[in-house]
Design goal:
Largest sheet: 8 strands, mixed
Radius of gyration: 30 Å
Distance between the termini: 58 Å
Number of domains: 3
Number of strands: 22
CATH superfamily of the largest domain: Bira Bifunctional Protein, Domain 2
Mean pLDDT: 94
CATH topology of the largest domain: BirA Bifunctional Protein, domain 2
Structural class: alpha+beta
Strand content: 15-25%
Helix content: 25-40%
Low-confidence stretches: none
Number of helices: 17
Amino acid sequence: MRTHHCNEIRDFHIDQAVTLIGWVNSARDHGGVIFIDLRDREGLTQCVFHPDENPEVSALSHTLREEDVVQVTGRVSKRLEGSENAKIATGAIEIVATGLTIVNKADVLPFQLDKELSNEDLRMKYRYLDLRRPRMNKNIRQRSVITSAARRYLDDSGFYEIETPILSNPTPEGARDFLVPSRLNPGRFYALPQAPQQYKQLLMVAGMEKYFQIARCFRDEDLRADRQPEFTQIDIEASFVNQNDIIGLVEGLLGSMFKAGLGIDVPASFPRMTYADAMDIYGSDKPDTRFEMKITDLADVFATTEFKIFRGILDGGGVVRAINAKGFAIITTGQMNRLNEIAVQAGLPVKNLAFIKLENGEYKSPLWKIFTDSEKANVVDKLDLAEGDIVFFAAGSRDSVSTILGRVRSECAVMMELNNDSTKFNFLWVVDFPLLAHDEETGHWAAVHHPFTRPHPDDIAKLEAGDYANVRAVAYDVVLNGYELGGGSIRIHEKELQAQMFSVLGVGPEEQQIKFGHLLDAFRFGAPPHGGLALGLDRIAMLVAGEDSIREVIAFPKNNKGADLMAHSPCQIEHKLLREVYVQSTYKDPKLAAEKAAVQ
């Protein structure tokens, strides 16, 4: 239906006859001469309809409006001098139309496609229109480009692309499963996979050695800007590898994706930081290292303090630490209230953060008059406190202080716009995660990553001795600008060690056999050492596109309530269909109840 796309024609096509098809991006009437910008996914071409060139075609062009689908035949001509448009690739030429076919008329649009729209629900309802906008077209194109680059890289590295089941069993991945009733097996359910974890390990037992998959994953959890109920990850597993092998592979993979998507070269290798250091320095296991504002320990400053609060915490084995938000002494009352709210949510036991700020040569803080002259001098020196700075303090257990100051640091960065540079890419590996975390509510131990993660070889004795809090994992996360791009580990491949790990997590022998018998049985038959990693494709695409929500790089996302407003999903299911899969709903919709009551 066309000879060229709308971003293809150049000077060397002048005097050629061409046919284009696409949407009317805009239409302008200049004294009876109609100019339209014709658009397809590749770009724009200006088409001109002269009354004296073809009166019938010109008359028809007067009926055009935005988003009509039209086919234009004409001759390529050089634009008049001074009328060129340097903003578009086809800006030196235009098509003098000799033929026009209106393929489909468009109704009045619910919103303008050339303007940003703050009403996200309206965008989701008419997502097929939202995707026509240049920004969204670019985002989806970039996602396709980086996905193709990932496939090429892994294929060139000797990986097989293998699909794993969507209908499976529930897996312990840290979130609720989406359940699917089985009609052929009454009373039984499938679960949609949170990740293909067990299947990819079984593929290693099967001798595939190198597997990858662009995998759809599902988690029934609360949503946020970088989370959806269904998401896509680049899932990788390999046999006969160690941590360095996986890290090197993923560095090359990410390099190829960012080169394809943005045309930039990222470092061949990324810096590494232990989990303990990340929490100590940044208060986060996915720190944004584009800015400083590091957490500073003040135990030596207050080693002999007589300030009762600090004295009691330090004597009890706690810490006193602080961050300097340089240049942020101009903080507003609203911003300070927000920081206090975040600190309390993170575990601050009092309502307000302790602070000191230096403004107009004056130290402003209730704490300042409590500190001794020596303590004041040491605080100023150690935190590099200068005019215009504000320092935030936290005291308590090491873990709680790290979490509080980490959250405050991140929010300060947002307020100070320190993390707005979407052209700076600070990659980082966080390694040596703890293997286990203690759940204070249940009193049980839980896997930090998942129960198939291998304990650090130097800490096996601690695991056997029950010193679970100090066992590290051979686990690693790749981080970019405060986002976790992906995480992985070297896996357990021995039946006995895996069974021991399940036992630590409170999964007894009988339950192990029911839930994981297939995996434990597989490990009996010569399971190779193996490990891998899963990258969040949605987050990578978001960062490549310079967006701050993964909804902007997913063609048809759910809104923040997990709903597809365009397709009206989720929806109610007729009783007959539920009965066929042996499901009975106990939920009573208040709207339906009200409607029935009104009718009666």
